[in-house]
Amino acid sequence: MSTAAVLGIAAGSAAALAPAASAKDGAQLAWGPCHERVLTPSALCAPLEVPRDYDDPDGEKITVTIMRQPAADPSARRGVLFGNAGGPGGDSLNFFDDGLFQWPQELRNEFDLVVVQPRGLPDATPVECPGAETIDPITAATNYGGALRAACDSAQPGYAEHITTENTARDWDEARKALGEERIDIDGLSYGTTLGSVYATLFPEHTDKLLLDSGVNPDRAWNGLMDDQDGAYKARMNDMFAWIAENDDRFHLGTTALQVYQRWSDRVVTEAGVNPTLAPPPAQVGDVPPPFTALAQQYIDGVNLTGPARVQLENLVGMLTNPGANQMASTVLAQTRGAVPQSALWPNIAQMISDGVPEGAGMEEAMAQDALQASNMQRIVMCNENQVPANPLSYPEFLWTSFVSGDIFDMYGATFTSGAACAGYAPVTKLPAATGEQLETKPLQLQGLRDPQTPYGPSLALADRMQSHVITVGGGDHGQFAKGNEVVDGAVLEYLRTGHTDVTEAPAPPIPAAQA
Questions:
Q1: SS3 string of 128-156?
Q2: 0.85 exceeded by the pTM?
């Protein structure tokens, strides 16, 4: 992977090599084409040198990349909007491309859309941790964090400890100065709400409007956050199965959530040789066989009572009778968990349940390398800042789900809650205590009622810290703005223009017929 100073070629870039932009305060930026993964034709990128260690500002430098899409209507320009795609570890250079998000044209007309690629990712002095992908099972169970840190330090001594949220926020301020802007607006998604809140806490005088889209609970950073997600993911899976059943005329996978779940389970068995251990959704009248109609409620109660234990037992028997079989080998299983927070992708999952994974849908080697790097960076940030004590009582669950059952719906929570995720890697800092007290404009926070990645109740802790105005959004999507939800998009645009909106509730976003 090349360093951040070496930029790729943007597909269809309208301004191939723009002249250097002047800056009121900071180094000039040499704008040029972005990496080809940035698809918006107007996008330009520039390298920016920043301190590796802000406690030693004159010491070693690293290079991050700034992406800028100029306001499409200069006469209507209101300012600059910094965005972050989440993670930690989310590639943000293409955050403002249209894809999963469909950014309102009014936003593009009125704001320069800016991204500072987080340090540690491609095009931002990527962290290199050779050998991390081959950590043996014993080490993974007892010293994963320590082994990861050692791998990173072997290639870039000392760099990993400086990949923190606070340092990335300070990179934002260096970019602000280089752009010549006195104040910035912020659109932070998921982990981006953490990054945006930290920036606003450190630099309130340079923060104008702050949009917190799907807020992260700062009190659960980081061991607690993954544990909060486990139950929410399972509930959202049931929502998806129910929606597919409601659209049986399109998908033909069953008329009840339990029937769809069974078709999904059958697909996992086809791929992995063993069934998933995710508990089935509750049975309903449509699941009762005709011979049991007279005892329908008793039948339903029995199925619901025994269902979770039954799938666990079937999985164990399957592994014993089919040595080497493990549910983690199922692509559909992994794709489903990854897609369930985005209802726009549910039609794709329904198609996979019906037909299997499309040919050629596997991850290319370069993409796999980027995914590994993003995973390493995420673990580094979380271990660097972890402030939730480990619970050793969760360690048996970590061992079982990680090395025996392969249950990805319980694995991640147990890995972090038990302390195994960062074993041997002590935190080096704490997140700054987020506060909105010094902000002139109250932040706006968007929160989905059944969002599995940033569950609603815990996420309100961020709203309390930042004194945010909250819009509660129906459904369970992760990320609310630019999803085709007219109420949400209208409220956000009103807020970015005026600093205020009276909207407090919004319906769930529409689910499209398919997602390319």
A1: CCCCHHHCCHHHHHHCHHHHHHHHHHHHC
A2: yes
